[in-house]
């Protein structure tokens, strides 16, 4: 097709396929894949929703946003973090809907059960969840630094025990009262 790779910036794209029924253009230099939206949605319409998820697939390496041009529209693509434990994002052209995946990212998405959600990664709902998780991770990291590893682990153990307890509300109230008054004063 004569596409220029968004990473290598050269015409090293060849016809390939990520799955049966999912043709792509693959860069022979970096191994990335260009997936048009029509091909992806065509694949979803025919793909087995219950196909086995591969095991022991290495997670694709972390990447970072950077300006990449859509090989079709020649407009800048937008970077969307996948989140949910995956350290990379996808680059999507919001004009034509095509998606660029770096080498190994499809396999990671598939191994984590996200192969049918590729189109959802760029949604406001998905990205809000990614941001929510990032904030929770930052808060957890700050608490761990503040308390130290041993105290943080003990706090996590107690919190897990309380979450599953049938009288957790009473127990939280008791702990709160004890922490603020130093005793059982009413």
- Secondary-structure element sequence? EEEHEEEHHHH
State the total count of DSSP E strands. 6
Rounded to an integer in angstroms, the radius of gyration calculated over CA atoms is 23 Å
Mean pLDDT: 88
Number of domains: 2
Quaternary organization: single chain
Helical/strand content category:
alpha+beta
State which percent range the strand residues make up: 15-25%
Overview of the molecule:
The chain is α+β, with helices and mostly antiparallel strands and 186 residues long. 38% of the residues lie in helices and 17% in strands. It contains 5 helices and 6 strands. The chain has helices at residues 37-46, 105-111, 124-147, 149-163, 168-181, and strands at residues 13-19, 22-27, 33-35, 78-83, 86-92, 99-101. The chain has a 6-stranded antiparallel sheet with strand order 1-2-3-6-5-4. A hairpin with a 5-residue loop joins β2 and β3 (33-35). The mean pLDDT is 88.
């Amino acid at each position: 097709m004569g596409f220029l790779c968004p990473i290598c910036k050269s015409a090293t794209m060849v016809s390939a396929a990520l799955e049966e029924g999912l043709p792509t253009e693959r860069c022979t230099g970096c191994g990335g894949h260009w997936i048009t939206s029509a091909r992806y949605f065509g694949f979803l319409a025919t793909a087995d929703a219950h196909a086995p998820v591969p095991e022991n697939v290495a997670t694709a390496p972390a990447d970072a946003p950077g300006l990449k041009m859509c090989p079709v529209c020649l407009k800048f693509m937008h970077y969307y973090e996948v989140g949910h434990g995956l350290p990379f994002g996808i680059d999507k052209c919001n004009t034509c809907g095509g998606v660029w995946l770096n080498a190994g990212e499809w396999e990671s998405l598939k191994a984590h059960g996200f192969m049918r959600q590729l189109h959802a990664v760029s949604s406001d709902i998905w990205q809000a969840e990614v941001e929510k998780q990032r904030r929770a991770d930052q808060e957890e990291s700050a608490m761990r630094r503040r308390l130290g590893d041993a105290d943080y682990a003990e706090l996590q153990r107690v919190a897990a025990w309380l979450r599953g307890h049938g009288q957790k509300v009473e127990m939280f109230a008791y702990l709160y009262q004890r922490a603020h008054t130093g005793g059982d004063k009413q």
